[in-house]
Every structure is written in C-alpha cells, then in structure tokens.
Amino acid sequence: MKAASRDRRERGLPSTARLRLRPFGYELDGITHRPAEAAALREAYDALIVGSDFVEIANRWNRAGFRNAFEQPWTAGAVSGVIWNPRQMGKVAYGGRIVADAVWEPMVDEITWRVIRARSKHRAIPARSLLGHIATCGKVLEDGTACGRVVSTGRQNGRPAYRCLGPTQHLTRRTDLVDAQVTKWVLARLARPSVQTRLTEGDRALAATHAQLARLRARELVEEGTAVPPADFGEVLAPIRAEIRELEERVVRTRLRTLIGRQLVSQTATEAWDGWSILERRQVIGAVAVITIASNPPARTPYCAKAVKILPRR
C-alpha cells in the first residue's frame, strides 16, 4: 500500500488515502479546482502578503459559509494547515519532503508560498504599534554611523513611546506623535497619481528577478551535488541562499505594492487606510517607506518633526 501511494506521489498525483476527505479548494479528485474555494484560497495568500493573519482568514471563510473537511467552522490552526500544504504551490510531498511537481494547477506561486511561510515562522513580535520593529534608531554613534537598531514600544511619562532596542536606549519618542507624522506622509504619498501608477505596474519588473532566481537555484543544485567537504558546505552555499532569500523577498514586496495599487484604483488613500488593520498598515508602511527616528531633542523641547526621517522605499 505504501509503495502504491509513493508511486502516485512521485507521478504528481494525490494520495488516494488523503482523498477520502475533500481538500479545501478542490473537488474530490484532489485535482480539479472548486472555483469559489479556490478564489478564497488565492485571496488568503494576498491577505497574508498585505498583513492579515490566520484568525482573520478563518473569520472571512466562516462568514462566507465555507466549512472544513469535517463540515466544521474554520479555526486559525485549520487555516494554517491548508495554507502551508505544499499542494497549494503545485508540489507533492511524501515522507515530509517534496517528491514531484503536481499535475494540478497551483493556487499560489512557489516563491510567494515559501516567503510567507518563512515570515510566519519568524513572526514572533506582536503588532502592538504602527512602527515597532519597522522604524530604526538614527542616533549617531562615536564612529559617525547611525545606531540602526529597530525601535520597540515602551512608556514615557505614562504614555506609549518608541524606544531604541540598544543597550543604552538612545531614544524615547511618543508613539502618537510619530505615528501621526508617518501616517500623514504615507497617505500623501499613496494619493499621488505617479506613485499609484508605479504600484500597479510593479509586476512588470518581476521577469528579470524570476530569471535571476532560476539561475541561482540552478547554481545551488550544482553546488549541492559537488563533493564539498562538510566543513566548507555551509560556507559555499550560505551566500547563494542569502541572495535567493533577498530576491524572494523582493518578489513578495513587489506583489504587495501591486496589491496596494489595485486597492487605490477603487478607493482613496484615506478610505483604504481606514479599512486596513494595524497589521496591514504596517505592511503598507514597510512597502513604501524607510523610517529613521533620531535621538531625543533637549529636555522640554517641543516635538521635533525633523527628528523623524521618512524616505520613499525604492
């Protein structure tokens, strides 16, 4: 039985044992897409790119009347099991590893699946603020360089404040004042027709990135197949894999910008912003801006807007 199942998997076919329960997004054959569910799955990946989470996706699916394979309402855990199934990127797994390309059409491209998966594994910081772990500390150090550490949230005189995560806490700035300044800048930028055009045309620049990724993955396979001493294996592959990760992130950032641009076609920047959750707003900020917060001005000095440096992300 196991041999037959393995043979089916290696030919890109779904396991007959698994098909006793219909996979979400597919008909009972595990190959044919069920249109309404397939659309919901694709929208879920887009939502994750923009900054949503499994709880929100479960709520959306339940509101739409979808049920899981046991005809029960969706939970965040059940949604994650569907989203992270390799079948969604058109791959067949057996024994915990990918063994073949699937015969069915994927719900999402492999790059997006892998990047969102990696982000989900390392998303250990709850989104309690708009700029925490996005903005960086701009305190100039003795050697003339900026601190560069990300800021987190704390308290200043009983009020929420951004603080440098460095050992000396180079800065403490009120979150409400900084957030208001950044929000105003982001809304003004998103309202510009030239920016909206660049956002919606972002996918056109992806062909060269995909080609570069294909070359790097081919090189990675070649290096893995060479007789490299174990002690040198990581040293040889680490730079290649680091470049692959950076290019994959670039692809997903471009997709995020495209999704933002599409929303701005039918809504004003303010309407879109008001409809986004804090997670989604954080993703938008990270896609369009680079934010540096300088150290505190002298005591009793009013809030200094110039201490918050906001640059467009290229």
Explain this structure:
The protein is mainly α. The protein folds into three domains: 2-121, Hect, E3 ligase catalytic domain fold, CATH 3.90.1750; 126-191 and 268-314, no CATH class; 192-267. 49% of the residues lie in helices and 11% in strands. It has eleven helices and eight strands. It has helices spanning 2-10, 35-50, 54-63, 76-83, 110-121, 175-190, 193-200, 206-225, 230-266, 269-275, 278-288, and strands at residues 91-94, 97-101, 136-137, 151-156, 159-164, 172-174, 289-293, 308-312. It has a three-stranded mixed beta sheet. A three-stranded antiparallel beta sheet has the order 4-5-6. A hairpin with a 7-residue loop joins strand 5 and strand 6 (172-174). Helix 8 (206-225) packs antiparallel against helix 9 (230-266) and helix 9 (230-266) packs across helix 11 (278-288). The model has no long low-confidence stretch (mean pLDDT 83).
List keywords for this structure.
314 residues; mainly alpha; Hect, E3 ligase catalytic domain fold; 3 domains; 3-stranded mixed sheet; 3-stranded antiparallel sheet; 11% strand
Q: How many beta strands in the DSSP annotation?
A: 8
> Which CATH top level class of the largest domain fits?
Alpha Beta
Strand neighbour order, sheet with most strands: 3-7-8
Relative strand content: 5-15%
> What's the gyration radius in Å?
23 Å
At CATH level 3, the topology of the largest domain is Hect, E3 ligase catalytic domain fold
* Amount of helix: 40-55%
Order of helices and strands: HHHHEEHEEEEHHHHHHEE
Mean pLDDT: 83
What's the CATH architecture name of the largest domain? Alpha-Beta Complex
Q: Structural class from helices and strands?
A: mainly alpha
Number of helices: 11
Rounded to the nearest angstrom, the distance between the terminal CA atoms is: 54 Å
Tally of domains: 3
Q: Would you identify the regions where 5 or more consecutive residues have pLDDT less than 50?
A: none
